[in-house]
Design goal:
Length: about 230
């Protein structure tokens, strides 16, 4: 599943080293699981990225993903916010990684989407699709928000949603997002880090971000022991 690995690399912060792998990235975009139209679009995305100035693309990435919470690549932030449930979800995910011999060698949180995609690229196809199916509501939300901001990154989220193989809800989400208040303006950035529960921004879309009742394949609840005085 080289496609998931590629999308994870493209969604990650584009450090200078990325430009050393131009030909590899363009070749990887021709994934056999994609339609000719999607292959052309993904190849175009990679080519445009590689043709651009690294500093410009790094600034663009920060502007999209690192200002405000609406476009955060931390999946659990969209589900749990800063609630205690997020800690439990982190523990469950870390345990799943460890059970399958996936060791985190970077300082990223386990729910960081590019990291999740790297893990899924090493797992069986059905399992990877099951995981993405559980996060599809978030991925489609990110796709709609990226498109609303006229960002080329919308394509990557759309490809992930399609990979899951589940019924699309993207059109409904796009209509909701169209009236959503931006959280990356200077005024909004002064307020966005206030404590919130599940939804972000002054007006959240009518999309339920509650996690599915069933956990993705291979993930089990990690019991927490109560501390005693």
């Amino acid at each position: 599943m080289k496609l998931l690995k590629l999308i994870g690399v493209l969604l990650d912060y584009p450090d200078d080293e990325l430009w050393l792998h131009r030909e590899e990235l363009i070749a990887a975009a021709a994934d056999p699981c994609l339609s000719p139209q999607r292959t052309a679009q993904l190849t175009g995305f990679v080519t445009a990225l590689m043709d651009a100035d690294p500093i410009t693309m790094q600034e663009r990435w920060v502007s999209l993903f690192d200002r405000g919470r609406a476009m955060s690549l931390l999946l659990f932030e969209h589900i749990h916010g800063e609630s205690r449930d997020r800690g439990q979800a982190m523990a469950d995910l870390m345990q799943a990684y460890q059970d399958n011999g996936f060791v985190l060698a970077v300082r990223e949180l386990p729910d960081y989407l590019p990291l999740v995609l790297e893990y899924l690229s090493l797992r069986p196809l059905d399992e990877a699709r099951d995981w993405l199916g559980h996060t599809r509501h978030i991925i489609e939300l990110l796709a709609a928000r990226a498109a609303e901001r006229e960002s080329a990154y919308a394509l990557l989220f759309e490809l992930l949603a399609e990979f899951s193989g589940e019924r699309s809800n993207l059109q409904t989400i796009r209509r909701s997002v169209a009236g959503e208040a931006r959280d990356d303006t200077p005024q909004a950035l002064d307020r966005v880090w206030e404590e919130e529960t599940v939804r972000f921004g002054a007006r959240a879309p009518d999309v339920d971000c509650a996690p599915p009742d069933r956990l993705p394949a291979g993930v089990e609840r990690v019991a927490h022991k109560e501390s005693r005085a």
